[in-house]
Specification:
Layout (H helix, E strand, L loop, with lengths): L15 H16 L1 H14 L1 E2 L2 E2 H24 L2 E5 L2 E6 L5 E6 L3 E8 L1 H5 L3 E7 L7 E6 L1 H11 L5 H4 L1 H7 L2 E5 L2 H9 L4 H17 L1 H7 L1 H11 L4 H31 L3 E4 L4 E5 L4 E6 L4 E9 H6 L2 E7 L11 E5 L1 H11 L15 H25 L7 H18 L1 E4 L3 E6 L3 E8 L5 E5 L2 H6 L1 E7 L4 E8 H17 L6
Antiparallel strand pairs: 1-2, 3-4, 4-5, 6-7, 6-12, 7-8, 9-10, 10-11, 11-12, 13-14, 13-18, 14-15, 16-17, 17-18, 19-20, 20-21
Helix pairs in contact: 1-3, 8-12, 9-12, 15-16
Length: 499
């Protein structure tokens, strides 16, 4: 019996005012970030903005803070929730009132989260998702953990008793199957594919340069760089060294970024095992607790690379239908050993077993990869031309062998395996990726074929679940038709639910 009465309308914790203030202040600063920086620069340099002195600007800032506080208080007072029969009712809004009704039977997921501010004031956020939207429809931003757990249990009363008591078991008799050490998290961050971080950092600095071009002009940094380049433009050795130095610096920055991001995202990562389910808990600045039930899982993706295999690290990513996009990055378990990956996969997919027979795509796939690589060659040669000028072709000494190796790896790692229960699809170049899905959860099957593929009687098969698309690349038409007929027969003749 719960100690909390959810029949009568109730508000969040009074500490929720601080959370709402933080959220509202963050949104305000985010929207006007460039303007705030511009005003700050003008105040520091000139002592005024549009004729307004520093004192008047501080008064305006104080007024804005008071307005944000008032807005937060009104949001808190007008936010009420309660349970009526089998429905969860919520009302909110200041001028525009909004009432939300969610049937318990339609609730798919309930997540408990904590950002850094919620951790400081010791409250949690509860998000409720239904099958009708990929974003959480209800967010209660400030509850005590006990009240949040009680509300979650009450809202999941339509699910079987094992899942209903998930929170109680997590507290009373939890079984921590896996806990990632700090060493594993650091190795995970170090061994990641840093290409994405590299592009993010390059884009970030490019955005800063575009936004503050005028400021850089006043400081004459650009002129100093131009003068330095002109003085050394005849030295091919210097240009190559400069290009290499910029690359190494950005790569080092990318590694540091990946280390920090991995550590913050997966801090204190734990996999808590229950009788039929597992729960993921992780995060430093944003703590989350995600309950995973086999019935709701649509796909599993297992990934690693050569460096991760050397350290004995694997990543398990779980795909569920209609997950809040902001939570997608948390549906992963990093730093797992090979045996742990196999155990958790069998826990989440009961009929999983390794399929020894692997089918490869046609060699036509290699030709497609070569054609696609031309864009990368043109792109890097163009950049090299602006940096190395007449010596730009030197980049191909490194570029062409690297692209050849990546093409070889991509074809080597591409395969598919299928039996009565499971479809496995392999892919990747630097990383090795294995996608795994249960056949009875397939929603649709389609083929994709260009005019050139049609001449060669080659096609691509696309398999859709409620969470993602899986592709079997470049196989013969007769094989594709056999696969499609088999999958459709298994789906239509099976009596299992996809969720």
């Amino acid at each position: 019996m719960s100690d909390f009465n959810f029949i009568e309308p109730s508000r969040q914790s009074t500490r929720g005012i601080a959370v709402l203030f933080g959220v509202n202040a963050y949104k305000f600063i985010k929207k006007l970030f460039i303007l705030i920086l511009t005003f700050s620069y003008a105040i520091i340099k000139k002592g005024e903005v549009f004729g307004l002195s520093l004192t008047k600007m501080l008064l305006i800032v104080f007024t804005i803070i008071v307005l944000i506080v008032l807005r937060s208080i009104l949001q808190y007072l007008n936010f009420k929730f309660h349970i009526v029969g089998e429905d969860f009712m919520l009302s909110k809004g200041i001028l525009n009132k909004e009432k939300i009704t969610v049937s318990k039977s339609k609730i798919q997921n309930i997540y408990i989260k904590q950002n850094i501010l919620q951790q400081i004031i010791n409250v949690v956020q509860l998000d409720i998702e239904t099958a009708g939207d990929a974003n959480a429809e209800v967010n209660i931003t400030a509850l005590s953990r006990a009240k949040a757990l009680a509300l979650k249990e009450e809202l999941l009363s339509h699910i079987n008793q094992t899942e209903k008591n998930i929170n109680k078991s997590a507290i009373d008799e939890n079984n921590i199957y896996y806990k990632a050490s700090v060493k594993k998290l650091l190795l995970e961050g170090f061994s990641q594919n840093h290409g994405r971080s590299f592009l993010l950092i390059a884009g970030f600095f490019g955005g800063l340069y575009s936004s503050y071009n005028d400021l850089l002009g006043e400081l004459k940094i650009g002129d100093k760089i131009d003068d330095f380049m002109i003085e050394n433009q005849d030295s091919i050795g210097f240009l190559i060294l400069l290009f290499f130095g910029i690359f190494i610096f950005t790569l080092l920055f990318s590694v540091i970024f990946s280390l920090i991001n991995t550590f913050l995202l997966n801090y204190n990562l734990q996999v808590i095992e229950h009788k039929k389910t597992i729960e993921i808990q992780k995060g430093l600045l944003n703590k989350v607790a995600i309950h995973l039930s086999p019935s709701r899982i649509q796909n599993i993706v297992i990934s690693n690379n050569r460096l991760k295999r050397y350290f004995g690290l694997n990543t398990l990513v779980i795909k569920q239908a209609m997950v809040d996009k902001r939570l997608l990055k948390h549906f992963s378990i990093v730093g797992l050993g090979k045996e742990q990956v196999t155990y958790l996969t069998k826990k989440l997919i009961k009929k999983f077993k390794v399929i020894s027979k692997k089918e490869k795509p046609e060699k036509y796939y290699i030709r497609i990869l070569i054609y696609k690589s031309f864009l990368s060659i043109i792109f890097f040669n163009t950049i090299s031309y602006f940096v190395l000028e007449n010596y730009f072709l030197l980049i191909n000494i490194i570029l062409l062998p690297v692209i050849s190796i990546l093409i070889h790896w991509r074809y080597k790692k591409a395969y598919y395996s299928i039996n009565d229960e499971i479809l496995l699809v392999g892919s990747g170049s630097v990383s090795t990726i294995t996608q795994l899905l249960e056949i009875h959860k397939i929603q649709a099957v389609a083929t994709k074929q260009s005019i050139f593929q049609k001449i060669r009687k080659i096609t691509t098969v696309k398999v859709f679940t409620a969470s993602k698309e899986t592709t079997i690349l470049y196989i013969k038409e007769d094989k594709a038709n056999t696969i499609i007929n088999f999958l459709l027969f298994q789906i239509e003749s099976g009596r299992k639910d996809w969720m």
